[in-house]
Amino acid sequence: MTNKTTHHPDQNMLIEFSAGTLETAASICVSAHLHFCASCRAQLLRLDQVGSQIMSQAEPVEVAKDALFQVMEKIDSGDKATPIETKVDGDMPFSVNKLIGTSLIDKNWKRLSSSVDVARFKTGQDNFEVALHKICAGGKTPKHGHEGLEYTVVLKGSFSDENAVYREGDFLLRQPGDVHQPMGAQNGECICLSALSAPIVPTSPLGFLMKPWLRINPM
Amino acid sequence: MITSKIRNPSQTRPTEDRVTTLNNSEKRSDQWSQLLISVGENRDRKAFAQLFEHFGPLLKGFAHASRNEGWFPGLGDDLVQEVMIKVWNKAAGYNAEKASATTWIYTVARNCRIDMLRRKSNTQHLPLENEDFWHEPDEATPISLLQQKRSEDRVQDSLAQLPKEQDQILRKVYLEGKSHAEASAELGLPLGTVKSRVRLALQKMQIIVSKEAQE
């Protein structure tokens, strides 16, 4: 397989994404992963086929006699040119690009610690803080635990923790109770998309150094 | 009566004419995809009317099946209108090697339905529409319409053979648009049971592979 990502969203998450019922913050992260992962895209197509066949079995409800006429009128009075869907350019997933273009709370990176910067997004929901995190090359973050869920997708570069190395496209889900200490790769900065549902808890005695981490700001 | 218009040459896409490259068995295989291609390439109003006749009532049914937060009585007609206008406007970008028309229209309808429900129930500004989550790169290996049609037929057959409770859960998820958590509350089942039931149904249909089998 050409696809190099090794950490994927679980099956139920992909199913909910395909059915359109996955919450916004998680959907942003899944869509970012799909940008990188051909095998999840193939799986998603199969799930969409299920959705399409189930929709085809919906109890048909008669539409108004002039419904088609009204649609044609709207089409004729509206936009004539049909822009072909914009292709995804560059290395960033479409949804992340759009967020960067429209919804950054602050246009500049904000320092969280000596090795981590953050850029938060406004995403119109209250459950998760969605943000980009940048870990500098070789940067160490304090060891910390999670009280809530955290989705992470590596967008650029790589980082590692006690368990594994995570590369571009990898999708991680931290559960409440997980403790880890991410470290940026030596060979370059690492940018991650993350959605965090509750403040993280420092477990090391120097944890007070990461105070800014302790606030989440869902927007 | 709606007549088809001669298309403006400036709208011609530089790609080869996909209708003519399909062989005969493929042409027979999926009339909806053929019609959609014709709408995209020739702004074919007759073809669009045929799509409307078939998908309009299904889309309205699809809207009526969801009684979620934000649901309102006019949703059905609004959805038919919004989806079909999108179908017309986006048809030129439709790639038959990525998904059949039925699957493609499903994804448009699903995204529209969520966005319409969200707009009704959410007062906050939402910078992303559901559609924004669906811009995937083209695949290296295209799938022919015939292959897609075959796999959709298999999906249909296997749906019909599902045990009742598995069929019910897939309908809740895909047709009613219920999240796993909502389905669990409605059916009075633990969330874990809902999750595994959904997976079991899709494993049975050979859509997903069980985790044990993957290893």
Task: Describe the overall structure.
The complex is a heterodimer of chains A (219) and B (215). Chain A is built from five helices and twelve strands. In chain A, the strands form three sheets. A six-stranded antiparallel sheet of chain A has the order 1-2-3-11-5-8, with helices on one face. Chain A has a domain at 94-214: Jelly Rolls, CATH 2.60.120. In chain A, a hairpin with a 4-residue loop joins strand 1 and strand 2 (116-120). Chain A has helices at residues 11-19, 24-36, 38-56, 67-77, 94-102, and strands at 110-111, 116-120, 129-135, 144-146, 150-156, 159-160, 165-166, 171-174, 179-180, 183-184, 190-196, 200-202. Chain A is of the alpha+beta class. Chain A starts with 10 loop residues before the first helix and ends in a 17-residue tail after the last strand. Chain B starts with 17 loop residues before the first helix and ends with a helix. In chain B, helix 9 packs across helix 10 (191-204). Chain B contains eleven helices and no strands. In chain B, 62% of the residues lie in helices and 0% in strands. Chain B has helices at 18-21, 24-29, 31-42, 45-65, 75-90, 101-121, 145-160, 164-175, 180-187, 191-204, 211-214. Mean pLDDT of chain B is 84; it is low at 1-21. Chain B has two domains: 9-144, RNA polymerase sigma factor, region 2, helix turn helix motif (Rna Polymerase Sigma Factor, Chain: A), CATH 1.10.1740; 161-215, Arc Repressor Mutant, subunit A, CATH 1.10.10.10. Chain B is mainly alpha-helical. At the A-B interface, helix 1, helix 2, helix 3, helix 4 and helix 5 of A face helix 4, helix 5, helix 6, helix 7 and helix 8 of B.
**Low-confidence stretches of chain A at least 5 residues in length (pLDDT < 50)?**
82-88
Average residue pLDDT of chain B: 84
Q: Shape of chain B from CA axes?
A: globular
- What order do the helices and strands of chain A follow? HHHHHEEEEEEEEEEEE
How many distinct beta strands of chain A? 12
Strand content of chain A: 15-25%
- Do you know the CATH topology of the largest domain in chain B? Rna Polymerase Sigma Factor, Chain: A
Give the C-level CATH assignment of the largest domain in chain B. Answer: Mainly Alpha
- Poorly predicted tracts of residues of chain B: 1-21
Helix coverage percent of residues of chain B? 55-70%
- How does the helix and strand content of chain B classify structurally? mainly alpha
Number of domains of chain B: 2
Number of helical stretches of at least 4 residues of chain A: 5
* Distinct helical segment count of chain B: 11
